[in-house]
Specification:
Layout (H helix, E strand, L loop, with lengths): L2 E6 L11 E6 L2 E6 L3 H7 L10 E3 L2 E3 L1 H14 L3 E6 L4 H14 L2 E5 L9 H6 L6 H7 L2 E5 L3 H4 L3 H6 L3 E2 L5 E2 L2 E6 L4 H5 L2 E4 L5 H12 L7 H8 L3 H13 L2 E6 L9 H15 L4 E6 L6 H12 L5 E2 L6 E2 L6 H6 L5 E5 L9 H9 L2 E5 L4 H5 L2 E4 L9 E4 L5 E4 L10 H12 L1
Parallel strand pairs: 6-7, 6-17, 8-11, 8-13, 11-12, 13-14, 17-18, 18-19
Antiparallel strand pairs: 1-2, 2-3, 4-5, 4-19, 7-15, 9-10, 15-16, 20-21
Helix pairs in contact: 2-17, 3-13, 3-17, 9-11, 9-12
GO molecular function: formylmethanofuran dehydrogenase activity; NADH dehydrogenase activity
InterPro entries: Formylmethanofuran_DH_bsu, Prok_molybdopt-oxidoreductase
Protein name: Formylmethanofuran dehydrogenase subunit B
Length: about 425
């Protein structure tokens, strides 16, 4: 008989909504409520069962033989790289840190496209942040900066932006929602106001708004319009909206920011929030990535002191953001073996990095067969993250949430495989 699971945590996007109701029939999820296209595409997707528990050089193998082969590869490697980890539970991420420490490896969480996270803005400026619940309950202005949550995080507007906030006199009141975007997107149609931004004009526009908030002199108005794509009057209006707000929240999506400087844009948003505090309360939050990206940064920070690009070759953890990112290590040919957990970045890495990775003995922990599993030296199949896994994950606002298995797993969890591999190295 079909089973109903309530209050399920969804990892399909960075919202990590924890109020889903799933209908499970056998080993399939047949219904997802409330309606969400991103959640539906994730939970209702057909996933053929792996051909075996493990593969060695693309051929079915026993789990014991595959683990022994993986241990052999790692014992002979001088500079192994561990990456992925964003579609893994906290327990799996902790096991990866222990393995990296044992091997003297480099550990760098990467997303499905092989991109490393950059935490430079937080490290240099700090962060003014809040929980999503606080924003939903207290903010009277939300600004979506050059992102489209209606398409990428469909329930964000429903649960956060359109959730009535409570004024000090306890009256629920609709908040103002403003979109600043280079194109009119799905979110623009749902917002109260949509402001224009030139493609690539993020830094210039943020600098103008920050200057207005600081009541400092501005440059030529013609130059401002040319650089930002909108007249000065629009940015003065946005600055006035921010000044008038008792609690403003700015949301952005790092994956959608300009490719030539997303880290600089995040830093500029942080600087804008700091300047805004001269007038009233403000916070800045990322929309968040699918899976457990925030968890990876949390685990690395509390285990090593650093959120990414951690190298253990010296016998202790060192943070090398310009050297120890996965793509940079591969481009320079510095890794001689790789462990990829919960992602398949091979098709998205820079050409030089991809070419190097194709030559390395690779150990892949994944839940589905693909071209990458045929090319890997060892493939260890794992339960589907977010459906067959249990453990803890972190939301984009760094709130820990419990993850349960909607479908009982048939395969060992990623953390168990990593722990068994660690024991073989002792």
């Amino acid at each position: 008989m079909p089973e109903t699971i309530t209050d399920y945590v969804c990892t399909a996007c960075g919202c990590l909504c924890d109020d889903l109701t799933l209908t499970v029939d056998g080993r399939r999820i047949t219904r997802v409520e409330p309606p969400c296209p991103v959640a539906a595409s994730f939970f209702l997707k057909e996933r053929p069962e792996p051909p075996a528990a493990a593969l060695i050089a693309g051929q079915p193998a026993t789990l014991e033989a595959a683990l022994a082969r993986a241990a052999e590869i790692l014992q002979t490697a001088a500079s192994p790289l561990i990456c992925g980890l964003e579609r893994a539970t906290v327990d799996a991420q902790r096991a990866a840190v222990a393995l990296a420490d044992k091997l003297g490896a480099t550990l760098d969480p990467t997303d499905d496209a092989g991109r490393s996270r950059n935490h430079a803005a937080i490290q240099t400026l700090g962060a003014v942040t809040a929980t999503l619940g606080e924003v939903a309950g207290r903010s009277d202005l939300i600004v979506y900066w050059n992102c489209d949550p209606a398409a990428t995080h469909p329930r964000h507007i429903e649960r956060i932006a359109r959730h009535p906030y409570t004024t000090p006199d306890a009256h629920p009141t609709p908040r103002r929602v403003v979109v600043v975007a280079a194109t009119r997107n799905a979110t623009s149609k749902q917002a109260d106001e949509a402001l224009t931004l030139r493609t690539g004009g993020d830094l210039a526009a943020l600098a103008v708004v920050r200057t207005i908030l600081a009541e400092a002199p501005l440059g030529d108005e013609t130059a401002i319009e040319r650089q930002t794509g909108a007249p000065l009057a629009q940015w003065a209006y946005l600055a006035q909206r921010l000044k008038a707000a008792k609690y403003a929240a700015i949301f952005y999506d790092p994956t959608q920011l300009a490719t030539d400087g997303p880290d600089a844009i995040v830093q500029s948003i942080t600087e804008l929030v700091r300047e805004h505090h001269r007038h009233s309360r403000a916070v800045a939050l990322p929309l968040g990535s699918p899976g457990n990206a925030a968890g990876a940064a949390q685990v690395l920070t509390w285990q090593t002191g650093f959120p990414s690009a951690v190298n253990f070759a010296a016998g202790y953890p060192r943070h090398l953001p310009g050297e120890a990112t996965a793509a940079h290590m591969l481009e320079r040919g510095e890794a001689d073996a790789a462990i990829i957990v919960g992602s398949n970045p091979t098709a998205h890495l820079p050409h030089a990095a991809q070419a190097t990775l194709n030559k390395l003995p690779t150990i892949l922990l994944t839940n589905e067969a693909s071209d990458a599993t045929q090319q890997a030296a060892v493939t260890l199949f794992t339960p589907t993250f977010g459906i067959e896994t249990a453990g803890n994950v972190f939301r984009c606002d760094n709130i820990a949430l419990p993850l349960t298995a909607a479908i009982p797993p048939k395969l060992p969890a990623a953390e168990e495989l990593l722990q068994r591999l660690l024991k073989l190295l002792n």
